[in-house]
Design a protein that fits this description.
Strand content: 5-15%
Oligomer: single chain
Radius of gyration: 14 Å
Number of helices: 3
Number of strands: 2
Helix content: 25-40%
Strand order of the largest sheet: 1-2
Amino acid sequence: MDVTHIVERINDLFHITNMEIYSRESGLTYHADKKVKKLGYCVNLTLETIEEARIHGVDMMVTRLRRKGDKW
C-alpha cells in the first residue's frame, strides 16, 4: 500500500474543521521509497516497540503522542 493512501485513510477518520490546527497537532514521519506491506500500531513509541516491530517485519508504525494531562 502506498503511504499517501494510508495517510488519507487515517485523516478520513477525523472530522477536520481546521486544517492548520490539525496539521500542527498531527504529522507523518516516514521517508522511504517502498510500499507498506505491514503496518504496526502502538500507544507509546519506545525503543522496545521499535525493536519488536523490526523483529516482526513492520514497515510503518502508527502511534499516538500522549500528552501530559491526557485522560486515558
